[in-house]
Amino acid sequence: MSGDNAEWRARSLAAVWHPCTQMKSHETLPLVPIARGSGAWLYDFDGRRFLDGVSSWWVNLFGHANPRLNAALVAQLESLEHALLAGCTHRPVVELSERLAALAPPGLGHAFYGSDGASAVEIALKMSFHYWSNRTKPEKRGFVSLEGSYHGETLGALAVTDVPLFRATYAPLLMANAVVPCPDARRMTETRSAADIAIDAAAALEAHLARHHATTAAVIVEPLVQGAAGMVMYDAEYLRRVRALCTRYGVHLIADEIMTGFGRTGRLFACEQAGIAPDFLCLSKGITGGYLPLSCVLSTDDVYAAFYADDAARGFLHSHSYTGNALACRAALCVLDIFRDDDVIAANAAKSQRFTALAAPLATHGRVRHFRHQGMIWAFDVATDRPDFARRFFAAALERELLLRPIDRTVYFMPPYIVDDAEFALLVEGTRAILDAE
Ligand SMILES: Cc1ncc(COP(=O)(O)O)c(C=O)c1O
């Protein structure tokens, strides 16, 4: 490798259009050139290091350049890198589908693959709509999502997303969608618990479905934690009620576990924490441990049966060239091996308790509001009037060897699971110092 940070920054800004970025902001905000990664750390070309406190956009579970994942991929490369999945199949995709079906909430035995998270959401939306059409109810074509929801940036996923910054410009292109209240646990008061807030929000959904179920295909939710809304957390009672309402009104439930899946909220899938099974389960991000783009939609026998027919057009004719990529599936199988062999869910439960204790100085900090925690996610809102808080915090964190990207005024930690106590303490101490200095 050659060149220093300055060279890679200049070349990148000349040639690469970076995602989710007003490129002009890089006139003043540092672009971080990454030379390599190891464990929870990323290293730049000038020899500085940064603790990856956001798991590289919520994808990394077991660290960068993980030796087990590396070895699994090298072995897979020796036999098959990719083959088309229409008309063909291969070992990694079969094994992965079998294992996901066994691990997911009951009844989700059919795996359809995409690449990024948004492609899984598109698949679930299209499948739900097409299911109702195949069942001679084409009028059931509406979708319901939650206030503050985020399901991705492609046009279908954006239509069920409620983050104005991402959505507003493209609104004329988006299909109509109903938005219902979010059971945000921050609305708790002395007399009203998170479960009470959840019950109220479910009542609002019920009112909507009572009127519109005949024209509604599906309700889509991010179970337990709405990531892009700013790590908004809510009580599992909401999910139980949504499941019951969807069943009662004959509407699909799509669980978007693209961020929450693979142990983030404390169980392998957040739906488990509510004891529910959706009709569609969307998975991505951590599925390959942060190595390769892969997404998957698991669906029920009932959904699958609605497409199974002599007529080609009744089938789900959706495809992407890299559907079920063998290398990505191999990485996902290795991730599942690590969960099993290292008893990751139990280890994370103990870690999560220790980390929450380590974060106590933040929970009681004078500028911190609504400190919250779920599994391997910690978040809080900062009392500040500065509209550029997130950007300033990001730059200040880099100065302290931390890679953290607040969402508006919400600071969160979502580290890879291999982060140790001393590394987590660095996140806490650095954040406290930044808040004190602001
Ligand atoms: C809940 C949820 N759904 C969907 C997506 C979109 O995934 P991707 O960015 O891989 O398209 C994200 C990404 O952050 C997400 O958090």
Q: SSE layout and pairings?
A:
Elements: H1 5-15, E1 36-38, E2 41-43, E3 49-52, H2 55-58, H3 67-79, H4 91-103, E4 110-114, H5 117-134, E5 142-146, H6 155-159, H7 164-167, E6 178-180, H8 194-212, E7 216-221, E8 225-226, E9 232-233, H9 236-249, E10 252-256, H10 270-274, E11 280-283, E12 295-299, H11 301-307, H12 326-341, H13 344-358, H14 360-363, E13 368-374, E14 377-382, H15 389-399, E15 402-403, E16 410-413, H16 421-437
Parallel strand pairs: 3-15, 5-6, 5-7, 7-10, 10-11
Antiparallel strand pairs: 1-2, 2-3, 4-12, 8-9, 11-12, 13-14, 14-16
The structure holds pyridoxal-5'-phosphate.
Label the structural class: alpha/beta
If strands are numbered along the chain, what order do they take across the biggest sheet?
Answer: 4-12-11-10-7-5-6
Give the tally of β-strands: 16
End-to-end C-alpha gap? 37 Å
> Whole-number average pLDDT?
97
SS strand fraction? 15-25%
Spell out which ligands are present: pyridoxal-5'-phosphate
Approximately how much helix is present in the residues? 40-55%
Poorly predicted parts: none
| Tally of DSSP helical segments | 16
Shape assignment: globular
Largest sheet: 7 strands, mixed
Rg value? 22 Å
